[in-house]
Specification:
The longest helix is centred in the last third of the chain and has 25 residues, at 651-675. Strands 3-2-1-4-5-6-7 form a seven-stranded parallel β-sheet, sandwiched between helices. A six-stranded parallel β-sheet has the order 10-9-8-11-12-13, covered by helices on one side. It has a five-stranded mixed β-sheet with strand order 16-15-14-17-21, sandwiched between helices. Helix content is 40%, strand content 18%. The protein folds into four domains: 21-197 and 376-406, Rossmann fold, CATH 3.40.50; 206-363, 3-Layer(aba) Sandwich (Rossmann fold), CATH 3.40.50.2000; 409-542, Nucleotidyltransferase, domain 5, CATH 3.30.420; 544-714, ATPase, nucleotide binding domain (Nucleotidyltransferase, domain 5), CATH 3.30.420. It contains 25 helices and 26 strands. It is α/β, with parallel strands linked by helices and 737 residues long. Homodimer. Homotetramer. Homohexamer. The hexameric form exhibits both enzyme activities, whereas the dimeric form only catalyzes the phosphorylation of N-acyl-D-mannosamine.
């Protein structure tokens, strides 16, 4: 680390020597509106804090200087930046021609400003028409351009403008790995691209813990609670103004019907913005008791408002980018942000053509809390950007190099697909039965098929394929669209490759088995495979007690003992895919022999097989049956008989169950001391018999710091199938894998 730091300092020193020892980099930051200032301000503060390296000139133009949009240049002054030049560049109008005239007016005025400032580099942000004028002027005047947020993909004319600025810019700061790949695919020189993250995230990720109730009260009223209001921000789509106005009307109608306090921000300066404002006034939004309509909210306060909202709705890039940092639910309307990377908090309503569809989206999203997303940044963008600026050699030629790498496509969820009953094929490979089910997004088992699990590999794989093909055909008849196949199986599984590495003794001929390839080839669907214990944990995370819980453990108490560990919302697999083999935690050095070959495992005490073994011993000694019990001669002794005997007062059966419960409880205590979850979920047919014993052992044996852990019994009827379905549903509806 010291070596690389010294190397970096040496490189910066060499650059300073090339540029002239006393030469500071003169940086011109041009800001056009409230949105781009929120991204540029952190960089401006960073530049201002290092006067030994930089000179900062600030140019303000565009909607910053218009009263109808809040005269937002004042917030730049409040941040104690000296504004070198104010340029009035917006031509008032309500059509596309006004935007073109505004670009032309900026092109007329900017050359004089740039001639006076003579900056070494100009920083331009984003994809607005004002920014295109800035980039065009600087490029034609041989001024180096650093473009922020290039390479991203969205809808409308913004895409074309953003990519045009990319071709004019000499250096690029992008926010995501995909954006970096897009820039490379657009022939930009990789050495002049910095993957830094979004500068606004430097502020966002430290903002949520600040005082927010006073801000909510100021903008929405003192009676409003957190997670019980909506923030709406919608802009006209310049490539289809008429449709975007209609969509805005439908949005307002849906919000009125939804009947929640809503903060509505005025739209950007774009063709169609005045018509949107007229729609607001026509519907009485400014005077409606449930609405607060404002031209501008300072960014620091806006952060707090969206961080604690029940939902954000509209088509602003802020919704799909910044709001993900807080896990706030977002409804993205229309095509304006099509193609942008999003977290799982974003629900797209691309064809927002009815009020009911938007209302349904509000009902789906409002009040939820999603995991925080860091797709667009980790909070360290500004230091990277400043280091990048210092490395620029002003004596280098500006000519670009070219290369042509591939670009990966993105996948996102869409409300139309959800309304079409997105579903998964779930396969559960048990020791006795082979089950296949069609499972909907809500966890409903639409149809289930059950067959005895064949004893040989060939017969088993053939039956899986046959049942999956039948289920996929039936899915069409029950109006389900199959997204993929999820398989839950016993044994150790490599989920990355879809291979069963080796199985338990309950499933024969089931080692080094590639399940993904033959099933995917036969059905032409993606296939996911995981251990049954991990699948049970995934089922709880998506449908059960684990929903929204950051750290929890699931224990399956059935024929064997298994489980899964979820840490920071993610499933733990381990370095050799052997994590969460909870049944093989040793609780006694001289305990009974386990099927794994060891002694004293939890499974050797508390599994269904272990209880059956003890029941048989009692039965052989004529100590099992008590008054009220009877067995037929051909009936096989099982764990159920032991439990029944204990309930009827058989003291030996009670002692066996007590020992089993204690063993399981000691295993749970070891888990608590190792991974410290906030929740333990007991699943399987024996869970109800063990839950009180486990709690008692925790109270007696656990450290005081973990005694408060919640121990609950799963309320899921079929965690194996639901977990297999979760493998599919969790991944196919996320944009990033």
């Amino acid at each position: 680390e010291v070596y690389f730091k010294n190397l970096s300092k040496q490189k910066q020193k060499e650059v300073m020597e090339k540029n002239g020892n006393n030469h500071k980099l003169r940086v011109c930051v041009a800001t056009c509106n409230r949105a781009d200032y929120s991204k540029l301000a952190p960089i401006m503060f960073g530049i201002k804090a290092e006067p030994q390296f930089f000179e900062l000139d600030v140019v303000v133009l565009g909607s910053h200087l218009i009263d109808d949009y809040g005269n937002t240049y004042r917030m730049i002054e409040q941040d104690d930046f000296d504004i070198h030049t104010r340029l009035h560049t917006i031509v008032r109008g309500e059509d596309e021609a006004a935007m073109v005239e505004s670009v032309g007016l900026a092109l007329v005025k900017l050359p004089d400003v740039l001639n006076r400032l003579k900056p070494d580099i100009m920083i331009v942000h984003g994809d607005r028409f004002d920014a295109l004028a800035l980039a065009t002027s600087a490029a034609l005047m041989n001024i180096r351009i650093l473009h922020i947020e290039g390479g991203e993909v969205s809808g409308t004319i913004d895409d074309s403008i953003r990519h045009a600025i990319t071709k004019l810019a000499h250096y690029h700061v992008c926010c995501t790995r995909s954006a970096e790949q897009h820039l490379i695919a657009m022939c930009e020189d990789h050495d002049r691209i910095l993957l830094a993250g979004c500068p606004s995230y430097d502020k966002l990720l430290s903002a949520k813990n600040k005082d927010y109730m006073s801000i909510i009260s100021m903008w929405l009223g003192e009676d409003v609670k957190t997670r019980d209001y909506i923030v709406a921000l919608q802009h006209p789509v310049t490539t289809d103004i008429k449709h975007s106005i209609k969509m805005f009307e439908l949005t307002l109608d849906a919000l009125i019907s939804f009947n929640k306090r809503t903060l509505v921000l005025f739209p950007n300066v774009d063709a169609g913005d005045k018509e949107m404002v007229r729609v607001m006034r026509k519907k009485g939004i400014e005077h409606h008791p449930n609405f607060r309509a404002v031209k501008h909210v300072p960014f620091d306060q806006f952060i707090q408002l969206v961080a604690h909202a029940g939902c954000m709705i509209g088509n602003s890039s802020c919704g799909v980018r910044e709001v993900g940092a807080f896990g706030t639910p977002v409804i993205n309307l229309g095509t304006r942000q099509t193609g942008r990377e999003t977290g799982e908090n974003v629900l797209h309503v691309r064809d927002a053509d009815t009020q009911d569809k938007i209302l349904h989206a509000l009902q789906l999203q409002f009040g939820k809390q999603y995991p925080c997303s860091k797709i667009y940044g980790d909070g360290n963008a500004v230091p990277r950007i400043l280091k990048f600026l210092k490395s620029i050699d002003l004596k280098e030629p500006l000519q670009k190099k070219f290369c042509f790498p591939p670009v990966k496509d993105n996948i996102s969820q869409d409300i139309d697909h959800i309304l079409e009953t997105q579903s998964a094929l779930a396969v559960d490979l048990g020791g006795t039965n082979l089950r296949v089910a069609i499972v909907s997004m809500k966890g409903e088992i639409v149809k289930k098929y059950t067959q005895l699990n064949p004893k040989t590999y060939e017969d088993r794989l053939a039956l899986i394929l046959k049942m999956c093909v039948e289920a996929a055909s039936e899915a069409v008849n029950v109006n389900c669209r199959i997204l993929g196949v999820g398989i839950s199986t016993g044994g150790r599984v490599n989920p990355r490759e879809g291979i069963v590495l080796h199985s338990t003794k309950l499933i024969q001929e089931w080692s080094s088995v590639d399940l993904r390839t033959p099933i995917s080839d036969a059905l032409h669907l993606p296939v996911w495979v995981d251990n049954d214990g991990n699948c049970a944990a995934l089922a709880e995370r998506k449908f059960g007690h684990g929903k929204g819980v950051e750290n929890f453990v699931t224990l399956i108490t059935g024929t064997g003992i298994g489980g899964g560990i979820v840490h920071q919302h993610e499933l733990i697999h381990g370095s050799s895919f052997c994590a969460a083999e909870l049944g093989h935690i040793v609780v006694s050095l001289d305990g009974p022999e386990c099927l794994c070959g060891s002694q004293g495992c939890i499974e050797a005490y508390a599994s269904g097989i272990a209880l059956q073994r003890e029941a048989k011993k009692l039965h052989d000694d004529d100590l099992l049956l008590v008054e009220g019990m009877s067995m037929k001669e051909e009936e096989i002794v099982s764990a159920a008989h032991l439990i029944q005997a204990a309930k009827l007062g058989n003291t030996k059966a009670e002692s066996i169950l007590r020992t089993a419960g204690t063993a399981l409880g000691l295993g749970v205590v070891n888990i608590l001391h190792t991974v410290n979850p906030s929740l333990v979920i007991l699943s399987g047919v024996l869970a109800n018999h063990y839950v009180n014993a486990v709690k008692d052992v925790i109270n007696r044996q656990a450290l005081s710091s973990v005694k408060t852990v919640d121990v609950v019994v799963s309320n899921l009827a079929d965690p194996a199938l639901l977990g297999a379905a979760s493998l599919v549903l969790d991944y196919t509806t996320r944009r990033i894998y």
